[in-house]
Amino acid sequence: MRRSILATAVLCAAWPMMSTAAGPTQVYGAWHCSDDMCTWGVPRTVAEFDAKNHWLIDRGDGRPSVNLVVLSFVHPLKLLNETTDATTLNGVPRGMTPQMVNYFTSRNVRVMLSIGGITYVDAWNQALAQDATLFGLRAAQLANALGVGIEIDYEENSDPDLVGLQVFITAYRSVIPYDATGSNPAARLTIDLAAGDRWLIDIGRKATRDWLRTNAPVLDYANAMVPAKQPSATSAIANWKEHIDGKSRYNPVYPPLAPAKFTAGLYLAGANRARPECNKFAASLQKSTGSFVTTAAPNGAGTTPGLLGYMFWAAERPSRGTTTQPPNGCEAGVGAGATTYDIPIPMPALRQQ
């Protein structure tokens, strides 16, 4: 299914003509890994956390740089079993405290917790096999207890347990129904998909067909995650357009996804250095891809132009040996983008179509 270089060039050269209208950028957020490589295993004081993360709540003029922070990651099996150990208390990472949630929500920044990640694929499989219903109920219980949304990050590329995942979602929604207004933070339930349509195919197909429909939504939206490395603008747009177009030649067909039902993922840092996404908006991908993200036309699903917005991977320390951006260091990238795109804070009710 590899697209030729020429075809990609033609496709991406043509995208500015897709739509003359622009949809509002409503989601502008960051995944957050704490300072321990996405474990969130140690409680932190607000003062210490703020010293390293102040840029998220202050772009330099007192306004937040983002309107969403996703604390990453909750261990699926530990959540199901309500495990208590050195890094976890009753199934919840010890660093994901009400104080950390309040740090953001008191500034009108929405908070979600991500369950899973690439490290916890086996744990997702085990939790779904053990008791998918109770797993979904535990997730809803956590969401209600902290007043946060939940992100499903189930990265099983080979034979995912789609039946179990459906049971998990059904159980969650039995406690916290879908809320189009967005007024209940715990009702926000999202899913992570691949950057395009050629990885996590079974999960992406199922989510697009059954859970992200505009006429019968079950999940609020999806995140098109970052690829293996920061893409060029051309490659990023080609990936995101795959979601909009779907894959009609796949068997079964991978249906198109409404632009208003997903966000675009970009890296903040890599190779021990901050990227322009963090510190130089003028040279960043959120600038060079901005016209596409705000004007991309539906192609078989949805009616309004433009993706929901951007998500950035990842604040603080997502991997060993990585310092990511310096403390308080992304005002000139993400913060400037928030100003340029007039990001609403707090996040408004999201476009549904």
Describe this entry's structure for a reader:
Keywords: Signal. Residues 1-21 form the signal peptide. InterPro entries: GH. This protein is α/β, with parallel strands linked by helices and 353 residues long. The protein has one domain (21-340): TIM Barrel (Alpha-Beta Barrel), CATH 3.20.20. It contains twelve helices and twelve strands. The chain has an eight-stranded parallel beta barrel with strand order 1-2-5-6-7-8-9-12. It has a two-stranded antiparallel ribbon with strand order 3-4. Helix 2 packs parallel to helix 4 and helix 5 packs parallel to helix 6. It is globular, with a radius of gyration of 19 Å.
Fourth CATH level, the homologous superfamily? Glycosidases
Radius of gyration from CA coordinates: 19 Å
How much beta, percentage-wise? Answer: 15-25%
Sheet of most strands: 8 strands, parallel, barrel
Total number of helices: 12
CATH fold descriptor:
TIM Barrel
Strand numbers in spatial order across the main sheet: 1-2-5-6-7-8-9-12
What is the top-level CATH class? Alpha Beta
Q: What is the distance, rounded to the nearest whole angstrom, between the alpha carbons of the first and last residues?
A: 29 Å
Which structural category do the helix and sheet elements fall into?
alpha/beta
- What is the N-to-C order of secondary-structure elements (H for helix, E for strand)? HEHEHEEHEHEHEHEHEEEHHHEH
Low-confidence runs (pLDDT<50, min 5 residues)? 1-19
Number of strands: 12
